[in-house]
Amino acid sequence: MCVKNRVLAVLFCLAAGVGSLMLPPTGRAAGDQLAPAAGQHLLTAVAPATTVSVVEGVLRNRTLYEVLTACHIPPAEILSLSRSFKPVFDFRSARPKDVYQVSVDNRHMIQKFVYKTSPLDEYEAIKNEKGGYSVHKRDIVLDRQQVAKVFTIETSLYEAVADSGEDQAIAGMIADIFAWDIDFYLYPRKGDRIAVVYERCYKDGVFVKYGKILAARYAGKHKTFSAFLFNDGRFDGYYDETGQPLKKLFLRTPMKFGKMTSGYSIRRFHPISKRYKAHTGIDYGAPRGTPIMATANGRVTFSGWKGGYGKLLMVKHANGYQTYYGHCSRLLKKRGQLVEQGQVIARVGSTGISTGPHVHYEVRVNGKPINPNKVKKSRGRPLSPELLAKFKPIVEERLAMVESLLEEKTSLVMLMQND
Ligand SMILES: [Zn+2]
C-alpha cells in the first residue's frame, strides 16, 4: 500500500460487530457477560482487527485521483470523497503544493482524509455512519505576538515598511485605518513617522499573517492622528484618543472604482419609461460582477427581487438610515445578517429595469430618499459614556506606548507577551 509514501502511524482498532454478538443481559454484573462460558462463541464471532495506515504526501503534478488509486482505493470511494468535499473545497482548484493525509483501512477504505492548501486552510473528512463523509474546515489555532514599530516615510509608506523588513500587507492595513484623514497613495509625506502596535501570527513557529493593528499614531509635520482598536459590543472599530470614530458614518461610494452614471435628482427623463421621473439614488456603472460594499455598518432587512430594482439588498443603519443596492447580479447576504462598512454584500448586474450593468445606490432616512452625497461627510457616532469608560484605560496604556516609541529617534522594536 503506497510503498513510496511515508507511513506515519499504524493503529489497531477493534472491529465493529462485537457488541451485537454479546450475550443478552441476564441480570449478572456487566463483566460477567464476557465470562468463559460463552468463550467459544465469542472467539469465532470476533472479526479480525482492522489496520489503519496513515499516508501523507504532497500532490505535486498528480491529481488526487491518481494519488488515491495508487493507494488501491476503489474509484467509487474516491468519487464519494470528492463529492462530500465539494461544498467545502473543490478539488478542481487543487494545486501541486497541496498536502494530503489519508487514513486507509485494510479493506482499502478511507477512514479519514485531511487536505491542506495553506498553513491556514486545512480540510478534514471523516467517514460517517451512512458510508459517506462529514467534511469541515479545521479551526487553526495561531500563536499571536504583539509587535510595536516605528515607520519613517522617505518616499512612501510602502517603502518604509519594506525597509523595516515587514510585508507590504501591513502598509495596506495602516493606509486603510487612516484613509479618512490621510491619503498615503497620493501624498507620501517625507519625514513623517508612524508608530504602530500590531500582531504577527505564527503557526508552528512560522509567520503566516498579520493579526490586528491595535494602535497607531501618525506624527506628521503639521498634524497628529491616532487610531485605537476597540469593539463596541458589535463591531471592531478605530477611534481617536477621545473616543471619536475615525471612519465616517458612510463610505463615499458603494464600490472601490465605480463611475457615477446618473446622479440624484427630483426629476429626470427616464430612458426606458420615456417619462420624467425622480431618480431617488445615484447610479454607479461598473462591469458585471464588480463587488458592491455596504457603505455603513448595519443589518440586512431585505435580500431578493423587488420590481424595477431587480435583485435588491436593503440595509438598516443607526439613526433611521437605510441604504438600497439595486440591479445586482448576485446577492451575497441574507435578511437578518449583520454587515460591516466596506464588506462585500452583492455583485453588480443589470437585473430589473436597467439599461446596463450598474448599481443603483439609495440612502433613505425614516423611509424617505435623500441625496447620498449629503451623508458622505457625517462622522460615525462617538462612544457612549459607558463604552468610553471601558475604552479609556485601554487607550491610555496604548497611547503611552506609541508616544514613547515616537520619542525614541530610532525605529525601536518591542516584543510583548501575549495573553
Ligand atoms: Zn438608479
UniProtKB/TrEMBL annotation:
Keyword Hydrolase: yes
Csd3-like second N-terminal domain mapped to chain residues: 153-255
Required co-factors: Zn(2+)
One record GO biological process: proteolysis
Region forming the signal peptide: 1-29
UniProt KW keywords: Hydrolase, Metal-binding, Metalloprotease, Protease, Signal, Zinc
Superkingdom to which the source organism belongs: Bacteria
Subcellular location: Cell envelope
One GO MF term: metal ion binding
UniProt-listed SUPFAM superfamilies: Duplicated hybrid motif (SSF51261)
Predominant cellular place of this UniProt entry's protein: other
Coiled-coil annotated spans: none
Pfam families listed in its UniProt record: Csd3_N2, Peptidase_M23
GO CC terms of this entry: cell envelope
Domain spans labelled M23ase beta-sheet core: 278-372
Protein name: Uncharacterized protein
Origin species: Desulfosarcina widdelii
